[in-house]
Amino acid sequence: MKPSLAKGTRDFSAEEVYRRKFIINVLQKNFELFGFQPLETPSFENLSTLTGKYGEEGDRLIFKILNSGDYASKTKDEDWSAKNSQKLISQISEKALRYDLTVPFARYVAMNHGQMTFPFKRYQIQPVWRADRPQKGRFREFYQCDADVVGSVSLWQEIELVQLYLKSFAELKVNVVLHLNNRKILSGLAEFAGISDQLIDFTVALDKLDKIGKEGVVKELLEKNISQDSIDKLDFLFNQSEKALENLAQLKEKFQGNEIGTAGVEELEFVLTKSFELGISEESLKFDITLARGLDYYTGAIFEVKATDVAMGSIGGGGRYDNLTEVFGVKNIPGIGISFGLDRIYLVMEELGLFPEDSVNVVQYLFANYGENESLAAMKVIGQLRTKGISAELYPESAKLKKQFTYAEKKGIPNLVFYGEQEISDGKITIKNLKTGEQIIQMVEEFLD
């Protein structure tokens, strides 16, 4: 039986690993420039830590881990017979792979808040797992690169995260549009339409506008028993101006007497206005009133980043979650965070040919193998090169030179070094550039210098 990969997972070749590291290094550098410090959490958490934080749809996508040993021994026969999966899960699984980095971070804050200096800024670059249906740009195992701030309600944090997003993507040379909304505006819209008790149904449907269009959203709202009258009140959502501040002015009028909606408009107006005053263009930062992101825990700003030159869905997202640590028994620790989708960013950069040539590290010198004595002398020179931070290796066997040439060419090694008996005797070394064909002879000391 041939080996195979689990669905939604991938192997990464050396070239892919180097390119992924290139992206990570750019993000890590910018995280630290903005004052964020690194954090790592376990790959799995208690199932109770994760469930109930992502909405019904998200909970279904959590990878549960079977209890060790005879996990079925403590189950109830009636639950097996009834195929009651919800009751069985709690009996056979106590752990789960993390679904994102935000909830584990909230758990960390709840456990350690007494020792923290607020506002606390952390970044985290680790894999997460989701039992999603694999498709282009969507995997079951993928990396998230998160930056979060907790302990501050200042809207300047939102502005800093806007800058962090745009600076990082500019350095990666990925053209993006950062879409911005506010959960309070969505709550205000639900109140305006008289469907406050169906806020989640409303936002989950609205978030799918890009995929299923207006007709699809309206159909889903009707299926969720949202009345046609309420849908008619929200019709203006599908006909927004290109000018963000004009749309906010329209909302102000509709939200008169609507406290939560007005608060959302004022917060978003501050973030947009200050960002524009700091030189961010209106083409890069858009108010997207239909942006909902179907997660239950956002309470204020919502972010989503999309590449403009390739169809890929979102390559980043996040928002404010002022109540998240309350589920762990710790109140009054507001938070806001964003995430970079490493895997999708990679696919965008690959499709557009944006990786620089030097993003892939290759061995600089391959020393030809002429036999045991010559190899020993070559290894001494190789050791000195490595001490200087220069990559070099010895071909492992004393094979025909043609075979050693082929090896160097296939690995992309630019220089083949000849250090045979005569060179050793003369204290010289011969270096052949395999790209240009140029060959030079130097004294060993000159070469090492």
TrEMBL record:
EC number: 6.1.1.21
Any Pfam family hit: tRNA-synt_His
Primary subcellular site in the record, as a coarse category: cytoplasm
InterPro entries: aa-tRNA-synth_II (IPR006195), aa-tRNA-synth_II/BPL/LPL (IPR045864), Anticodon-bd (IPR004154), Anticodon-bd_dom_sf (IPR036621), His-tRNA-ligase (IPR015807), HisRS-like_core (IPR041715), HisRS/HisZ (IPR004516), HisRS_anticodon (IPR033656)
Subcellular location(s) of the protein: Cytoplasm
GO MF term set: histidine-tRNA ligase activity
Claim: Ligase is one of the keywords in the record: yes
Keywords, ordered alphabetically: Aminoacyl-tRNA synthetase, ATP-binding, Cytoplasm, Ligase, Nucleotide-binding, Protein biosynthesis
Protein name: Histidine--tRNA ligase
Organism encoding this protein: Chryseobacterium gotjawalense
Gene responsible for this protein: hisS
